[in-house]
Amino acid sequence: MTVDGFALAATTNDLTREPKARDAADLLEFRMDSADDPIEQLAEYDGTLPILATNRSRWFGGEASDRGRLDQLMAAAEFDVVEKVDVELETARGLQWVLDEFREQDVELVISFHEFDETPDKETLDAIIEECNKYGDIAKVATYAADRTDCLRILSAIDTATQNGIRAAGIAMGELGSHTRIIGPLYGSALGYAPLESDSSEYAPGQVPLHRLDSLIEMIDQSGTDNRIFEQLDEEYPSRQKVTQTE
After folding, report:
1. Of the residues 84, 114, 211, 242, which is catalytic?
2. Which end of the chain has fewer CB atoms at under 10 Å, N or C?
């Protein structure tokens, strides 16, 4: 990635796929919640990309049960290759002592907030990002986009946070919001997420495959916002084109 301050994470539940991500990703988001023997995978990992460990519970769109989930994430943080861990905002609010333990492992904390049904108003988004920042190093907000206004709102919130010195990542989920994953870095988004083409798991609606996302971000970084990007999105996501034409 050439966008200043931005890192692209290849999302996978199988660390043996790391070589397929090296030419496009800056790090791996290891989805422990859907992985087989995640701690064993980390012990055997010999890749070059650093890891962001995520162990998402069912309450927040993942597959992990609550029992032992944070203990497993803490065990992952003990590996030198794990540079970041994802902790949900709701977890950070209730278990602040856990955050201190993670910091003792010298990992960065990505504090994440997910809303799968809507995008809150701008004032609420700003408050959520500020709260995530209070608990961690990177504030990640992912919301569902029902229309263009939702997409603009999440981008505006990331821009505001960036202007205020907050490292933030913002994503509008759903096909209509897929372009926010591409242009988010222009608004200061610190992290992007994309699945490997060979990964059969579906982690979030509207994701763009890794190498596709990498090439599109590079395109806008080199030439600025370009209508070619939106033309390509319309070809790949027909439902987005339909919504756009009727608005």
Report:
1. 114
2. C
Reply yes or no on whether 114 is catalytic.
yes
Query: For this structure, is 140 an active site residue?
Result: yes
Q: How far apart, in whole angstroms, are the C-alpha atoms of residue 154 and residue 113?
A: 12
Q: Please, what are the domains in the chain?
A: 7-246 (3.20.20.70)
Taking every pair of C-alpha atoms in the chain, what is the biggest distance, in angstroms?
A: 52
* Catalytic position from the list 122, 134, 140, 179: 140
Q: How far is CA 116 from CA 4, 80, 99, 175, 223, in A?
A: 29, 33, 25, 13, 33
Digit-by-digit pLDDT tens for the chain (247 residues) are 445 689 999 999 999 999 999 999 999 999 999 899 999 999 999 999 999 999 987 776 666 666 778 999 999 999 999 999 999 999 999 888 889 999 999 999 999 999 999 999 999 999 999 999 999 999 999 999 999 999 999 999 999 999 999 999 999 999 899 999 999 998 999 999 999 875 555 555 568 889 999 998 888 777 655 455 445 545 544 544 443 333 3
